[in-house]
Amino acid sequence: MAARSVTPGQRFLDPAILMGLKDLDLVARTVVDGFIAGLHRSPDFGFSQEFAEYRAYTPGDDLRFVDWNVYARTGRAYLKRFRGETNTHITIMLDSSASMGYASGALSKLDYARFLTASLAYIANRQRDAAGLIVFDEQVREFVRPSTRHGQLARMLHAVEHAVAGKGTEFHGPFLQFQQTLARRGIAVVASDFYGEPETIIKLVEPLRFRGNDLVLFHILDPRELDPQLKTPVLLEDMETGTAIEVSPEYAGGEYKEKIGRHIEELRRWAKGVGAEYFLLTTDRPLDDALREYVAVRQRRL
Amino acid sequence: MGWLAPGFLAGLLALGLPLWLHLLRRYRNQPRPFSSLMFFEPRTQSSILHRRLRYLALLALRMGLLALLALAFANPFISEPAAKATERRLLVVAVDDSFSMRYGDHMEEAKRRARGVLDGAEHGRLAMVAAFDTGVDFVAGPSVDRNILDAGLGSIAAGDEGTSFGALARALRGLAAAQRSALDVHVISDMQKAAMPPAFADLELPAGSRLTLDAVGKGGEANWTVESVNAPTRVFDGGKKTVSAVVAGYNTAETTLAATLALDGRVLETKTVTAPAGGRATVEFTGLETPYGFHRGEVRINAADELTGDNRYPFAVERLDPRPVLLFDSARKTRAALYLHAALEAADASGFQLEERASGSGDPGDLSRYAFVMVLDPGRMPARLEAALDGYVKRGGAVFLTLGAETLSAGKTPLTGHVIRGAEQPGRGETFETAAVTEPGYPALKGLTLEGVKFYEAAFTEAGNARVAARLGDHTPLLMEDRIGEGKVVTFASALDNVANDFPLKASFVAFVQQMADYLGGAAAGTANLTAGTVVDLHGEGAAGAAVDVTGPDGKRALSLTEAAALPTYELKQDGFYEIRAPGGRRRLLAVHADRRESDLTRVPEDTLALWAKGNSGDAPAQAGAGEPGEMVQKPLGRYLLVLALLAAVSESLFSVRYLWNREAA
């Protein structure tokens, strides 16, 4: 059989291709399997059932983790410990506001965020992490409490599947909900387009960080939001407020780009200031960038 | 302002169409959803305004285009004083340059008066100068430049042609239509009675024109003329021939004149003739001896009048040997050869000698020495003979074919290859077909009719590209001519044996045979006596495109090299002899005499002239605006509106392309 030049599964990380897959579970499996296959070729990253250390057997330990090879060679029983055994909580907050429904191509920001959420849930399931989900716009639309119980992945994927673009964005309510349900420290992931004052947003999410949580902000934007390409003046309508403004190409190509660039920098600066991980994603980028960010954050927790 | 066709104003209702398209169905600027406008500011009014302005301009152009079209069809006009319109009247000074203007100082007087008319015109007046005889030449203008007009006037000289006031009026009507202007016409002429058209209505000038008639000379001056000469144009033997001439006097007393016959400048005979007052006398010369070749003859009188050009009458004569004509008789030995022989010999001075030969004979011999060849009912012609005849025709020879029973059975005509689809055989004595000439100008049928000729049998042939000069009653071609190479083949689709038809027994048969012989033998092209102004066909006998050399009465070549190859016809304008050399060495000598109607200088009655002038005094209403002072005339504006509509249409196209491009790009 001829050798394949492309890493298996890697090509499925392209968001545009993932749009063709109907089943969100299949999307998640495709993404994560491809991502993991990519990681195995990388010297910098480890994942899941990686060997961490040996520990002398003490009565009461589970005999399944005894390394019988070592026992055969040395006559002493050792337990083989893996990093994946260190479980954590991960709560994903998915913004489903109206602005997340924007798409310059086939894939909207919400679609991209759903793929991302499903992939993270799938990874968490493999890691036996307790994963939870909050879908929100102006208020909490879906809530799946973090758990490692059987069927948790299906519940999460079901919630993600039914996330549709709603109304405006309101961070306060969802974050309060998150704080109330938080039983132990873990990782909080926020996937949103963060339309709002950076200082306000960060101050709202900052309390999550104070409780010892790792906070990851995925800032999801459409490429045309960063670089609107207008040839003639057009009438633009705000998807959340419904207001319309006629915009000239000169403004969109100049002052607007400066403003949104400044907005992103502010967000990045404010996030760094509170120790949160900020990551800008555009919907034309492969999902493994986001997954790599998440894995890096999780590894730091071990 | 008014409307000449106000009904078309209903077309303004069409203005509602663009209004509906633009305002009721106009393109709505659909807002495009965008995630958030928190980084946008409403600062774009100027560019949007530009687009709206472009949109409104497009609407205005479309409405304007429709409005202009409707208004143009409604034909608006504005009224303006006739005096103002008169400023656009075109002054036409028409000078008679016919033969009669050679009388005394008539032409100089006419030109002097023409200058007077131009002098009298106000400065900057648009004017033209025309010379007219049987035709009209506009020799200068329209121009306001006096030098141009004077130069045109100076170029006018009396010719040898007649006068036609009808032709002048017709040309002026055309001029007024082309210039879209009323005319002030000043006609300077000797006002000969002979120039008047048969119908007075033919003298009508364009509406609104003003006519001034200026007669030169006293009118009715005495004049002698050699009115006509009857001389042979071809002579086939060396004997003395008779030439008769008619001497006429107009407004003259009884006078005895000396009349002289000259040939090539040499006086052959002189006689005296006494003509009655204002009458005619005939003089006959019997001593015309003609050597071989072309000769220039002349009959002249010693009359002492001031119009000398008509005191001589040129004529051309050619001495030549009779030319042999070869006749291939039918294998059936019908009587056709006998009839043809008799018809050719019936001519007073036949230039042809008939040689008969059976078509089945082997060697056709040298055909080039024959004027033409007649083949009677050839049937299946021997290949050798057909090849020889084909070569003869291609080199410029002529063949006359008749089709009888033998050829009918062959199924096609020799040489030309026309398919014979069958025979017209109504049955002798019972039914028959008649025939008619379809091309009266065909040389062999000039002046002839086939009326009364009964055709009992004829070949039903396909004419193809042949020239058909006569047809039977059922449109079957009867007389066809095919051009092959330099020569021609004339086919008569029946026999001449008094069986297939009774044509040989009709009086027209002799004339037909002689004219056919002249045509095929080229004898008609030798000499001719013509009136000045006659137009001759230069390439009729030669290949198109070949140069034809024309030498005028002054001995100089009348045509440039380009004209010699390209001109199809040539007008013989001057009195004297023209020599025409066609390709292949064929020569023609044409004697041209001045139009003898010009010799009668009797003037048109004064009351007739007054009636003509009054009928064209400018009183008639004219759209272009002639009239008395204070009278209002209408000036149509339709064409200006059409020009504006065209501009609007072009602008609309440009605007709509830009607008639509921008809309699609957005």
- Tally of alpha and pi helices of chain B: 13
Order of helices and strands of chain A: HHEHEEHEEHHEHEHEEHHEH
What would you call the quaternary organization? heterodimer
For the secondary structure, the number of strands of chain A is 10
How many domain regions of chain B? 5
Helix coverage percent of residues of chain A?
40-55%
Helix content percent band of chain B? 25-40%
Widest sheet: strand ordering of chain B: 18-17-19-20-26-25-24-22
Mean pLDDT of chain A: 77
* Coarse shape of chain A: elongated
Radius of gyration of chain B: 36 Å
Which whole number gives the mean pLDDT of chain B?
81
> Unreliable runs of chain B, pLDDT <50, ≥5 residues?
620-629
Question: What can be said about the biggest beta sheet of chain A?
Answer: 6 strands, mixed
- Biggest chain pair contact, residues each? A-B, 36 and 23 residues
The CATH class label of the largest domain in chain A is Alpha Beta
Structural class of chain A: alpha/beta
- Uncertain residue ranges of chain A: 1-12, 40-49
Structural domain count of chain A: 2
